[in-house]
Amino acid sequence: MAENLDLKLTAEAWAKIVIERWERKILRLKIGQYGNNSTHELAKSFTHHVITNADGNPEQIEFTFNYYGKFVDMGVGNGVKYGEPGRKAKAWYSKTFFSQIEQFKIIWSEKYGLKAQMTIIDTIQNTTI
Amino acid sequence: MANDTAKATIYLDGKQAESAIDILKAKAADLRKELKKAQDAGDNIKMNKLSGELTKVDSALSGIRKESFDVQKVLKDLNGSSMNDLKKALGQTQKEYNRMKQTDAGYKDKKAEVDKLKNAISEANGTMKDSGTTWDKLKDTASGLLPAFGFAAIAAGAAAAFGKIINITDTLGTQWEASVNGMKEGLNEFWRTIATGDWSNFTTRMQEAIAMGEKYIYTLDDIEDKTRSLDIIEAESRGKILDLEEKLRNKTLSKEERIAAGQERIKMEEDLAVRRTGLAQQTYDNEAELTALQTGLSKEQLKTVLSDMDSVTKIRAKAYNDQLDQYEKLKKANVTTVGNNGMSGGIVVALGETDKMIELKKLFQEAAPATKLYADQIRATGNTTDEQLDKMVGSYVKLKEAENSAKENTKRVVTQTNSLLAGQEETGEKIENKSVKNKKDASDKALEILDTANNERNKKLADQYLNENMTDATFKAAQFKLETDYLIAKQIILQKNGQSTVDIDKQINDKRIQSQKEFNDAMAKAEEETLTKNDPLSGDEVGVDPASMVTPEDIEFASKKHSLDEWVEYLTQKTNEQLDIKKKAIDDEKAMQEAREQINDAQMSGIGQLAGVMAGMFEEGSAAQIAFFALEKAMAIAQVWVNYARESSAIHFMAATMGVPGIAWEAVMQPKALINAGINTAIITAQAVAQVVGSKKSKKEAGHVVGGFTGPGGKYDEKGPVHANEYVIPMEGTQAAGIRPFIDLMEIARRNGSLARLDLRPVVQAMASGNGYSSGGHAVKGSSSGSGVQVNNQSSLSGITFEELKRFNDIMNRLDKNGIKASINKYGVNGLDEGIKDIAKFNAKIFKK
């Protein structure tokens, strides 16, 4: 039963999904692809890390990637400001990320709900007369 | 930039959830104890009932646990993106299920597993609509237990709560907390019901408790929001308040503007007071409402009861509960079963109350409300009652404090505003206009620097006096100058900063008067001494001074017959003596002049440096810096002028040595006048010097229109244009020894500005008559004939009379030694001629001429 309530595993799994979605998006938007050459530097730069507290419960989920990726997402940089013509925004980051966060909220709520449920059940089971 | 790393962090606050789970866990453990207790108490009816219900619950929960496992698996597969595994698991379960018969054990469970896996696949595809299934199941299973067992109600509440959480899209925080608190209050109500045994309206009360628990958290959240907004408003208000107070202090604004600022300030404080008390009121209401729910008393009753509580209330409450237990036991014991004569299935009938019971009941009725309240609370929630009561009382105290401080603050602001409008700080200190204050501050700062610099200069002067053998007179003059300079610099600072200069003007004026007085006194004294010494009729002192003009030896020598050689020898000796005296007097005067110049240089340079240093201390481009920069420049220009004056005075000294008395007066007086002017009025000096510099510049541009030597060079070297009405002396003339004295004479007159007044006709006439200039006459109009000696120093002494020589000698002595100063002070600017007349009178008296 313990593994079912492992919040860290859930967070890890979700983080992997996020990165996978980003990678898909990057490929689809052909970011980092110059002609026939692909460096995939941005896609390669993704890492994630789940930070837990002393009880083993996750407190933070961190993602890292090459900073220039944010410029690509917004279509800025090289002297072009946000909203100005000149560079086309390739929105790989924000939309994907925040839609996944919404999913995560749902998963997380249910996870805690289940944890509460299991706690009560365990206790009540011990009270069987 | 490409190598930099971006970081996205998600913060997961699971602490609230964890703590809520802990509470549930504790409550469940309590439930276990209660059941155990009921078992120990031998309440078989209740026990049987509970036991049966618990079995059902246990069965239902076991099913749920299994289902939960499947949900976990689904979630795990989802998180791992293993949709194939999920489908595989469903296929396997489905096979097992298909092989089973309906009569087999676990058939239903297997069916449920299949359903769950299907749901999980559905969830994995992004549809979360069935996610509440687990809890719905729990609710359905437990709903039948509601009237009998509180946990089912809690579970139902929890299911509803978690259902809400599952559907949230905004935040986990508040809704989660509210739901948990709803559950907590539901549990509390459950424990209250178990303790009191009052199951009437249990469901309604349970729902109310859950609703209240949720509402409590939302209200707390609302209070937090309002607190934050109040914080922002207060923070912004502080800036606005400062602006308004600044306006109130600013006397340059119109009265209407200041009054409007005052009104706004008061209104702002009133608004803030309303917000502060409103927030405190809401906090109190929230706490009071929850406490009222827990105690079953109204808010007003609660307040009354709490105000009557004292330290023995808890002891009394415990006694009250003991008595209550006693009463319950008596009541329980006081029953009998009728019908079938003791066989089971008879009717239970309560007998009448015993005396003890009646006594106890009376005690309950007489108990103080506070005791009753606390006793109820102990029964309901154990010993944790104080926490909520303390919260309520604490919020009440804060409310009252907020109300009181609101009144006090508003009153203080009104007083302060009125005071500021009246032109006074609260402390009674008068408000100064800001710009005036700034100027005064700048002035004070500059004066402080000036004082420091002045102290340094005084110290330096004192050192010089002690270590460099400075004479008292020189020290006194330098000290006087220092004081004057200091006062003038102070005056400039005050003027530039718009401060009153009345005092400083008076001090400067006093200083000048004092200076003039001292000078006059000194001159009068010198004149008196001179006249006394030189007046042969004044008695014993005649002839005592070796520098006096007519000595007893002279008279004795003159009263006898002498040969020409003897006369020549005697006069040569006398002349040499006089020349020595004259030379010494000139040297002394020169030394004095140099000393004055040195002091002046030091002071001028000192003021300039001081101004420069001070200018550096002020902000770049500030008015003060510009002012001191101007002062520095003015001093630099003044220095030029003084140098120029000094140059002029050198010429005048030359003239004096050549016996041109009209120039000699200027030689003594002009430098002093120039130096004083240069030091005392820097600005005027600057303007004047600008003119001087300008005139010098124009001279340069105009070639030699002002005359003078063209400088060395060849005969045909051009040195500028020649203008109309000029006369040019060719090189042969300037180099001829016979003509040179005339050129020198004219050059001297040109340099000191007396060229137009120079009259050489007597000289020419004398030369034409063959007598030369040695016979006397005036070289300069209105002056003595002294200069004739210099002009015609080649002439022979033969033929001169004793009287002529004597007269010449006297005049020379008198003029060179004392005559000039005495004349100036006694007769003013035109005193020279008068002085000469005096000399003539002396001559007449002495020589009976």
Key descriptive features of the protein:
heterodimer, A: about 130 residues, alpha+beta, two-stranded antiparallel ribbon, 4 helices, elongated, B: about 850 residues, mainly alpha, two-stranded antiparallel sheet, 28 helices
Task: Please give a structural write-up.
The complex is a heterodimer of chains A (129) and B (849). Chain A has one domain (3-126). Helices cover 52% and strands 15% of the residues of chain A. Chain A contains four helices and four strands, in the order H-E-E-H-E-E-H-H. In chain A, strand 1 and strand 2 (37-38) form a beta hairpin. Chain A starts with 6 loop residues before the first helix and ends with a helix. With 849 residues, chain B is mostly helical. Among the domains of chain B are: 15-131, no CATH class; 288-421, no CATH class; 518-705 and 801-847, no CATH class. Chain B is 75% helix and 2% strand. Chain B contains 28 helices and three strands. A two-stranded antiparallel sheet of chain B has the order 2-3. At the A-B interface, helix 1, strand 4, helix 3 and helix 4 of A face strand 1, helix 1, helix 2, helix 5 and helix 6 of B.
Adjacency order of strands in the biggest sheet of chain B? 2-3
Kindly report the oligomeric state of this protein.
Answer: heterodimer
**What is the average per-residue confidence, as pLDDT of chain A, rounded to a whole number?**
76
Question: How many helical stretches of chain A?
Answer: 4
Largest sheet of chain A: 2 strands, antiparallel
- Radius of gyration of chain B, taken over Cα atoms and rounded to an integer in Å: 60 Å
Structural class determined from secondary elements of chain A: alpha+beta
Q: Compute the CA-based radius of gyration of chain A.
A: 20 Å
CA-CA gap between termini of chain B: 113 Å
N/C terminus separation of chain A: 23 Å
Which strand-content bin applies to the residues of chain B? under 5%
Percent range of helical residues of chain A: 40-55%
Give the SSE order of chain A as H and E letters: HEEHEEHH
What percentage of amino acids of chain A are in beta strands? 5-15%
Query: What does the overall shape of chain B look like?
Result: elongated
Largest interface: which pair? A-B, 59 and 64 residues
- Indicate the overall shape of chain A: elongated
Low-confidence stretches of chain B: 57-82, 126-154, 161-172, 340-345, 534-548, 644-701, 770-801, 815-832
Average pLDDT confidence of chain B is 64
